């Protein structure tokens, strides 16, 4: 848990965990965070913190700033952010700054290539020696290209930053403690090769 030291209605310091502190020339040991009540800590200007906004790197980039709001029972921490630019931008010098869609499209191509490369030797062997690729491998390789095409279609359909999270699958933890898919998106969902099935 993190704590904020507040003085004159301003956050002076954020403490990441319990540690000894000096407030108004009085030294307090680190165990006050475990044995004192929140009201006692508040009386000397120490509030628990609560993060009110996080940065989803899929949709936003941090701008480096943090805003604190001092509430009656906690200090709210807000990370300043701005949305990724969706489309490519041509700059005054005619250079192009790639937008999020272009970056995601390139990522799909890279991932598909990385997935297919280990089995490329089968295609080469077939072309050079005539040894046929097993049908399950042909089907799988085609399924990777089909999935990449579907991902690219979904990416190209994005019109606002709020569309981006739908490209990704969401996961939750089951009662047994296992990660399970809560929703399916396109990005990162690749068919398993015949050896993995």
Can you offer a commentary on this structure?
This protein is α+β, with helices and mostly antiparallel strands and 197 residues long. The protein is 30% helix and 30% strand. The protein has 5 helices and 11 strands, in the order ββββααβββββαααββ. The strands form 4 sheets. The chain has a 5-stranded mixed β-sheet. Strands 3-4 form a two-stranded antiparallel sheet. A two-stranded antiparallel sheet has the order 8-9. A hairpin with a 4-residue loop joins β6 and β7. α3 packs antiparallel against α5. The mean pLDDT is 92.
Task: List the main descriptive attributes of the protein structure presented here.
single chain; 197 residues; alpha+beta; 5-stranded mixed beta sheet; two-stranded antiparallel sheet
Could you write a compact summary of the structure shown?
With 197 residues, the protein is α+β, with helices and mostly antiparallel strands. It has 5 helices and 11 strands, in the order E-E-E-E-H-H-E-E-E-E-E-H-H-H-E-E. Helix 3 (100-116) packs antiparallel against helix 5 (135-156).
The global form is elongated
> What is the typical, i.e. mean, pLDDT?
92
Low-confidence stretches: none
Largest sheet: 5 strands, mixed
Taken as a percent bin, the fraction of beta residues is 25-35%
CA-atom Rg in angstroms: 26 Å
The helix count comes to 5
Fold blueprint:
Elements: E1 2-7, E2 10-16, E3 21-23, E4 26-28, H1 32-35, H2 38-43, E5 46-53, E6 60-70, E7 75-83, E8 89-90, E9 96-97, H3 100-116, H4 120-129, H5 135-156, E10 170-173, E11 179-183
Parallel strand pairs: 5-7
Antiparallel strand pairs: 1-2, 1-5, 3-4, 6-7, 8-9, 10-11
Helix pairs in contact: 3-5
């Amino acid at each position: 848990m993190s704590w904020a030291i507040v003085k004159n209605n301003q956050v002076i310091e954020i403490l990441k965990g319990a540690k000894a502190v000096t407030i108004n020339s009085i030294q307090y040991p680190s165990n006050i965070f475990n044995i004192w009540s929140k009201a006692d800590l508040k009386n000397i200007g120490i509030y628990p913190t609560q993060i009110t906004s996080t940065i989803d790197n899929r949709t936003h980039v941090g701008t480096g700033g943090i805003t604190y709001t001092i509430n009656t029972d906690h200090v709210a921490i807000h990370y300043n952010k701005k949305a990724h630019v969706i489309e490519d931008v041509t700059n005054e010098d005619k250079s192009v700054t790639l937008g999020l869609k272009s970056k995601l499209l390139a990522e799909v191509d890279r991932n598909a290539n990385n997935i297919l490369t280990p089995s490329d030797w089968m295609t080469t062997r077939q072309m050079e020696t005539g040894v046929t690729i097993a049908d399950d491998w042909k089907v799988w390789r085609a399924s990777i290209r089909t999935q990449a095409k579907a991902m690219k279609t979904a990416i190209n359909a994005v019109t606002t930053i709020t569309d981006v999270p739908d490209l990704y699958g969401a996961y939750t933890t089951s009662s047994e403690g296992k990660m399970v898919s809560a929703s399916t998106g396109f990005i990162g969902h690749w068919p398993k090769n015949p050896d993995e099935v």
